[in-house]
């Protein structure tokens, strides 16, 4: 069995990172995973629905409240999210909004790997107990 010239491992080659395959660019230059804005917005809307029921004590299936809507804009690895949602009345609006923003940013970052630069909220309306019971037959 004869060895081809240059095919033997150099004597100082030991454990370490594997050698780069010949002809392939470095991993960072091979491509990127792109997550469409629409997908990020759907993730944010679901995260907002969960946070809304947990932080604002507003069940997601309550008839007086509409589901949160979201839009997202991604740019070079970061995303800005805008949410529109309902909150119960009475509630501590600044505190609840801050917690919802934090929860949504954390969940979007966790699921997408993007840096969440901003989560802007629009409160569409405050839902009272009378609004939630409207339309029910007793």
Radius of gyration: 25 Å
| Sheet of most strands | 3 strands, mixed
Q: Please, what is the average pLDDT?
A: 81
Instruction: List unreliable stretches of 5+ residues.
Output: none
Helix content: 25-40%
Count the E strands: 3
Give the structural class.
alpha+beta
Label the overall shape: elongated
Secondary-structure element order, N to C: HEEHEH
Strand content: 15-25%
What does this 3D model show about the protein?
32% of the residues lie in helices and 22% in strands. It starts with 36 loop residues before the first helix and ends in a 5-residue tail after the last helix. It has a 3-stranded mixed beta sheet. Helix 2 (93-112) links the parallel strand 2 and strand 3 (115-127). The chain is elongated and about 70 Å long. It is an alpha+beta fold and 138 residues long.
């Amino acid at each position: 069995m004869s060895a081809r010239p240059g095919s033997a491992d150099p004597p100082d080659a030991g454990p370490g990172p594997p050698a780069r395959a010949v002809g392939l660019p470095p991993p960072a230059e091979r491509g990127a995973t792109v997550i469409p804005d629409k997908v990020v917005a759907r993730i944010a809307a679901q995260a907002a629905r969960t946070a809304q029921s947990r932080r604002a004590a507003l069940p997601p299936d309550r008839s007086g409240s509409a589901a949160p809507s979201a839009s997202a804009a991604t740019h070079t690895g970061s995303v800005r999210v805008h949410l529109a949602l309902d909150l119960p009345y009475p509630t501590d609006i600044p505190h609840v909004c801050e917690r919802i923003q934090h929860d949504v940013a954390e969940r979007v970052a966790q699921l997408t790997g993007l840096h969440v630069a901003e989560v802007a909220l629009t409160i569409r309306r405050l839902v009272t107990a009378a609004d939630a019971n409207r339309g029910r037959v007793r």
